[in-house]
Amino acid sequence: MTTEASKQVGFDVRYVESLLLDESNIKSQDHAAGLELLRKYSSIPEHQLVSHVVKVVSLLLACLLRFLVCSLSDHPIYPEILMRLAQEASMVDLGCCFAQDIRKLAYDGAPTRNCTAVDLEPRFFSIAEDLFKDSRKLDASFAGADLLNADEKLWRELEGKIDIVHASSLFHLFGLERQRQIAHLISRIVKPVPGSLVVGLQLAAKEKAEHIPIVNDQEPSFCHSLESMQLMWDDAAQDIGSNTDKTLRWQVGLTPRDIPGNHRVGLLSDDRLREVQWFARLIDSAGEWQKAAGFQTLV
């Protein structure tokens, strides 16, 4: 794809280079959980794995190979999420793409009837059914909605009802102002009680927060430090429902890790970047839920 064509479609070819569809990348170690899903959950024979993936993904002109990365199951808070879903907690997966993380929850034994997968592009949902062959066994809900339009019906319906929000590979697609919009939206849909939780994996700055091109050069993404992420969620706390006395606040924590080598190409080869597993959890003035083993926190 030429540079001019990259501008027309809104993303940089160097971003797509990190997600190229070839057998070595499909079978890379960070896709192990997703491949196990296809083998055992979807009953795809081993000798058909690669051809099946290529066939389905070819329906998407510039699909992200990261649909095989089950980033939630690798998160340190995953065991808590499994436990809470077993206790009838509600969960929303924002920017879910193929909803592979909800499918991994189902495969790991969690009930998904209270889970809602949300993406701007609802055509992903039928393609995902073709990929995972689970149209008759997955009981999660699916909805198309725009995270940057707070007035959409879905967000009004979910207001104050959600225990857990999953938001991986999402915030780093935007500049700071749009990230703030999303954080405020999340603050409105979560239950206004201590323990409400947001978790994710995203690209971040190794040192100080700064704008770094990730999707394209024209609109650099805002890559956070721990301090800037905490500030963003502090600001979003004003939209937590029933928080008129300001006793509820977001505690942010992150744990850094290297970007996988097979993704260190194109714009993602920037040495200023790293990945972080992160959470934002509602706590009260008494500091309930403050312990977060293994995470860097400020609050």
The helix/strand series, from N terminus to C terminus, equals HHHHHHEHEHEHEHEEEHEEE
For the secondary structure, the number of strands is 10
Overall helicity: 25-40%
Strand order of the largest sheet: 3-2-1-4-5-9-8-10
**Average pLDDT figure:** 85
User: What is the 3D form?
Assistant: globular
Radius of gyration: 19 Å
Helix- and strand-based class?
Answer: alpha/beta
Distance between the termini: 46 Å
SS strand fraction: 15-25%
Low-confidence stretches: 1-9
What kind of sheet is the major sheet? 8 strands, mixed
What does this structure look like?
This protein has 299 residues and is α/β, with parallel strands linked by helices. The chain has eleven helices and ten strands. The protein has an eight-stranded mixed beta sheet, with helices on one face. Strands 6-7 form a two-stranded antiparallel ribbon. Helix 4 (32-41) crosses helix 7, helix 5 runs antiparallel to helix 8 and helix 10 packs across helix 11 (226-236). The longest helix has 14 residues, at 176-189. The radius of gyration is 19 Å and the shape is globular.
